[in-house]
Automatic annotation (TrEMBL):
The gene is torS_1. It is an enzyme of class 2 (transferase). Keywords: Kinase, Transferase. The lineage of its organism: Bacteria, Pseudomonadati, Pseudomonadota, Gammaproteobacteria, Enterobacterales. Pfam families: TorS_sensor_domain (PF21689). This is Hybrid sensory histidine kinase TorS.
Amino acid sequence: MALLTLTSTLVGWYNLRFISQVEKDNTQALIPTMNMARQLSEASAWELFAAQNLTSADNEKMWQAQGRMLTAQSLKINALLQALREQGFDTTAIEQQEQEISRSLRQQGELVGQRLQLRQQQQQLSQQIVAAADEIARLAQGQANNATTSAGATQAGIYD
């Protein structure tokens, strides 16, 4: 009976040790994948941050900087998805979403660029309008002076 108890204890200890080792090995194997998932999450957050900044870009320098950041994050996300795919994960749904997001962000970037160009054109037109209004005021002043001179000459001619 003691031998049976001892054998049972040894088998239980060995099995628990084996289970512990399997758990440890699986955890160690998952750490790189969890690290990639964390990096993927961070890259997505930076992509979202850059997209928000892109929308509020008020000059070409900021617009280009946010565009570069978006491109870098998109490339990083695609590289991480490729690595996950190579490890056997099905990333097709995430890749499709990333492609759709990239397409939308590209369109957003183009629209922001157009908005900046239109704003610049608006400023140029405003400056031209101000310059034209100044010229009209100057010419009107000249006409008023001419009319005053003419009226004065006419009055002088009446008394001659």
